[in-house]
Write a structure and sequence with these properties.
Blueprint (H helix, E strand, L loop, with lengths): L1 H37 L13 E3 L6 E3 L7 E6 L4 H15 L5 E6 L5 H11 L5 E3 L2 H7 L6 E5 L5 E6 L4 H11 L1
Parallel strand pairs: 3-4, 4-5
Antiparallel strand pairs: 1-2, 3-6, 6-7
Helix pairs in contact: 2-5
Length: about 180
Protein backbone atom coordinates (compact mmCIF):
# COMPACT_ATOMS: atom_id res chain seq x y z
CA UNK A 1 0.00 0.00 0.00
CA UNK A 2 2.82 2.34 0.90
CA UNK A 3 4.45 1.79 -2.52
CA UNK A 4 1.18 2.56 -4.27
CA UNK A 5 0.83 5.84 -2.39
CA UNK A 6 4.43 6.75 -3.09
CA UNK A 7 4.04 5.87 -6.74
CA UNK A 8 0.85 7.90 -7.03
CA UNK A 9 2.57 10.85 -5.36
CA UNK A 10 5.55 10.55 -7.72
CA UNK A 11 3.20 10.47 -10.71
CA UNK A 12 1.46 13.62 -9.52
CA UNK A 13 4.81 15.37 -9.00
CA UNK A 14 6.11 14.26 -12.39
CA UNK A 15 2.95 15.48 -14.09
CA UNK A 16 3.15 18.78 -12.25
CA UNK A 17 6.79 19.24 -13.25
CA UNK A 18 6.01 18.33 -16.84
CA UNK A 19 3.04 20.67 -16.82
CA UNK A 20 5.17 23.54 -15.49
CA UNK A 21 7.86 22.82 -18.07
CA UNK A 22 5.31 22.83 -20.88
CA UNK A 23 3.83 26.09 -19.56
CA UNK A 24 7.30 27.66 -19.52
CA UNK A 25 7.98 26.50 -23.09
CA UNK A 26 4.63 27.88 -24.23
CA UNK A 27 5.25 31.25 -22.55
CA UNK A 28 8.72 31.45 -24.12
CA UNK A 29 7.32 30.57 -27.56
CA UNK A 30 4.66 33.28 -27.27
CA UNK A 31 7.25 35.81 -26.10
CA UNK A 32 9.58 34.98 -29.01
CA UNK A 33 6.70 35.13 -31.51
CA UNK A 34 5.64 38.57 -30.23
CA UNK A 35 9.25 39.79 -30.35
CA UNK A 36 9.66 38.52 -33.92
CA UNK A 37 6.44 40.24 -34.97
CA UNK A 38 7.40 43.54 -33.29
CA UNK A 39 10.85 43.62 -34.89
CA UNK A 40 9.89 42.23 -38.31
CA UNK A 41 10.32 45.55 -40.14
CA UNK A 42 13.34 46.84 -38.21
CA UNK A 43 16.68 46.84 -39.98
CA UNK A 44 19.35 44.34 -38.92
CA UNK A 45 22.67 43.14 -40.37
CA UNK A 46 23.19 46.38 -42.24
CA UNK A 47 25.04 49.64 -41.69
CA UNK A 48 23.42 51.88 -39.11
CA UNK A 49 21.98 55.09 -40.58
CA UNK A 50 24.17 58.18 -40.38
CA UNK A 51 22.31 60.28 -37.86
CA UNK A 52 23.65 63.62 -36.70
CA UNK A 53 21.29 65.57 -34.48
CA UNK A 54 21.26 68.41 -31.98
CA UNK A 55 22.03 67.47 -28.40
CA UNK A 56 19.35 68.10 -25.78
CA UNK A 57 21.81 70.04 -23.61
CA UNK A 58 22.33 72.56 -26.44
CA UNK A 59 26.07 71.92 -26.70
CA UNK A 60 25.94 71.29 -30.45
CA UNK A 61 25.36 68.25 -32.59
CA UNK A 62 26.43 64.65 -32.14
CA UNK A 63 26.46 61.42 -34.11
CA UNK A 64 24.12 58.68 -32.90
CA UNK A 65 26.73 55.91 -33.29
CA UNK A 66 30.46 55.48 -32.66
CA UNK A 67 31.97 52.91 -35.01
CA UNK A 68 34.96 51.06 -33.58
CA UNK A 69 33.16 50.08 -30.38
CA UNK A 70 29.96 48.24 -29.51
CA UNK A 71 27.15 50.44 -28.25
CA UNK A 72 23.41 51.00 -28.11
CA UNK A 73 21.11 53.57 -29.73
CA UNK A 74 17.91 53.87 -27.67
CA UNK A 75 14.84 55.59 -29.15
CA UNK A 76 12.25 56.85 -26.69
CA UNK A 77 9.20 59.07 -26.36
CA UNK A 78 8.87 61.22 -23.22
CA UNK A 79 5.27 60.04 -22.65
CA UNK A 80 6.21 56.34 -22.85
CA UNK A 81 5.91 54.45 -19.54
CA UNK A 82 8.17 51.58 -20.66
CA UNK A 83 10.81 54.05 -21.84
CA UNK A 84 10.88 55.57 -18.36
CA UNK A 85 11.33 52.19 -16.73
CA UNK A 86 13.95 50.74 -19.08
CA UNK A 87 16.22 53.63 -20.10
CA UNK A 88 18.03 53.42 -16.77
CA UNK A 89 19.11 49.86 -17.68
CA UNK A 90 21.07 51.31 -20.59
CA UNK A 91 22.44 54.09 -18.40
CA UNK A 92 23.67 51.46 -15.89
CA UNK A 93 25.39 49.42 -18.61
CA UNK A 94 27.21 52.53 -19.73
CA UNK A 95 28.13 53.62 -16.20
CA UNK A 96 29.43 50.12 -15.36
CA UNK A 97 31.57 50.06 -18.50
CA UNK A 98 29.70 47.01 -19.83
CA UNK A 99 29.19 48.84 -23.13
CA UNK A 100 31.48 51.44 -24.70
CA UNK A 101 28.81 53.98 -25.56
CA UNK A 102 25.10 54.60 -25.50
CA UNK A 103 22.97 57.26 -27.15
CA UNK A 104 19.35 58.11 -26.43
CA UNK A 105 17.27 59.68 -29.18
CA UNK A 106 14.06 61.50 -28.28
CA UNK A 107 11.18 61.08 -30.73
CA UNK A 108 7.48 61.94 -30.71
CA UNK A 109 7.73 64.89 -28.32
CA UNK A 110 5.84 68.17 -28.35
CA UNK A 111 8.53 70.35 -26.80
CA UNK A 112 12.13 70.24 -25.67
CA UNK A 113 10.87 70.93 -22.15
CA UNK A 114 8.96 67.64 -22.29
CA UNK A 115 12.18 65.77 -23.16
CA UNK A 116 14.10 67.64 -20.44
CA UNK A 117 11.46 66.64 -17.88
CA UNK A 118 11.76 62.99 -18.97
CA UNK A 119 15.53 63.09 -18.50
CA UNK A 120 15.19 64.85 -15.14
CA UNK A 121 12.64 62.25 -13.94
CA UNK A 122 14.71 59.27 -15.05
CA UNK A 123 18.04 60.73 -13.94
CA UNK A 124 19.95 59.25 -16.87
CA UNK A 125 23.29 60.67 -17.91
CA UNK A 126 23.31 59.41 -21.51
CA UNK A 127 23.81 61.91 -24.29
CA UNK A 128 20.35 62.69 -25.68
CA UNK A 129 19.78 63.65 -29.31
CA UNK A 130 16.64 65.40 -30.49
CA UNK A 131 15.15 63.29 -33.25
CA UNK A 132 12.32 63.96 -35.67
CA UNK A 133 10.01 61.92 -37.95
CA UNK A 134 12.77 61.53 -40.55
CA UNK A 135 15.11 59.97 -37.97
CA UNK A 136 12.29 57.61 -36.93
CA UNK A 137 11.78 56.62 -40.58
CA UNK A 138 15.51 56.15 -41.23
CA UNK A 139 15.73 53.71 -38.30
CA UNK A 140 12.28 52.15 -38.81
CA UNK A 141 11.04 53.18 -35.36
CA UNK A 142 7.27 52.77 -35.00
CA UNK A 143 6.97 51.92 -31.29
CA UNK A 144 8.70 52.87 -28.06
CA UNK A 145 11.16 52.08 -26.74
CA UNK A 146 13.10 50.72 -29.68
CA UNK A 147 16.79 50.11 -29.37
CA UNK A 148 19.58 48.89 -31.60
CA UNK A 149 22.89 47.29 -30.70
CA UNK A 150 25.59 48.58 -33.04
CA UNK A 151 28.73 46.50 -33.53
CA UNK A 152 32.28 47.81 -33.85
CA UNK A 153 31.92 48.04 -37.65
CA UNK A 154 28.93 50.39 -37.33
CA UNK A 155 26.42 47.72 -38.33
CA UNK A 156 23.13 46.92 -36.64
CA UNK A 157 23.75 43.70 -34.77
CA UNK A 158 20.49 43.39 -32.86
CA UNK A 159 17.26 45.26 -32.28
CA UNK A 160 14.38 45.16 -29.85
CA UNK A 161 11.06 46.87 -29.15
CA UNK A 162 9.56 47.34 -25.70
CA UNK A 163 10.91 46.98 -22.22
CA UNK A 164 14.30 45.34 -21.92
CA UNK A 165 16.09 44.32 -18.78
CA UNK A 166 19.68 45.18 -17.99
CA UNK A 167 20.57 41.56 -18.67
CA UNK A 168 18.76 41.56 -22.02
CA UNK A 169 20.57 44.69 -23.21
CA UNK A 170 23.92 43.43 -21.93
CA UNK A 171 23.48 40.00 -23.58
CA UNK A 172 22.69 41.56 -26.96
CA UNK A 173 25.68 43.90 -26.69
CA UNK A 174 27.94 41.06 -25.55
CA UNK A 175 26.93 38.96 -28.57
CA UNK A 176 27.86 41.88 -30.85
CA UNK A 177 31.38 42.04 -29.38
Amino acid sequence: MKNRVRTAWQNIRERKTLSLLLDAVLILAVFLAIHAWQTRNLPVDQAAPDTVRALLDGSGEAVAIRPGEVGVVYFFAPWCFYCKTSIDNLDELLADGRIAWGTAVALDYESIAEVEEFIRETGVSLPVLLGDPRVAADWGVRAFPTYYVIDAQGRISSRSVGYSTWLGMWARAWMAS
